[in-house]
Amino acid sequence: MTLDQHMRNVDRAEKIARRMDAAFHLPGTRIRIGYDSIVGLVPGIGDTLALAPSAYIVKLAHECGASHALLGRMGVNLGIDWLIGLVPLVGDIFDVGWKANLRNAAMLREHVESLHGLTPQTPVGADSRSATANP
To answer: What is the rounded average pLDDT for all residues in the chain?
Structure first.
């Protein structure tokens, strides 16, 4: 794949990650939540449904030539998000802070930038104060 194709995959991953993890701002706070947190409120099935877009981010990383180790780290992020998300209330609170999709999109960006010798950049719309900026 060319740099342009890789960057299109990174852009897709970041767009999905923002929707899933940071689409909405909770009024009166600095907290952002996404569809993952909202869908996760449905016991059992909600967190499982949220895995589909998350798995697509991992697929995009695979298409960009991510190593098995990187894909494994991304899978662990999703596994933690899914497993803890299954626990009522505790999982919902955890989900607001974990943001596995933003972590995985950041890892994909880092992989593509290092693969092509680019200077690391903060993705558009990323909160530089967030723990997800450096997973």
So the answer is: 89
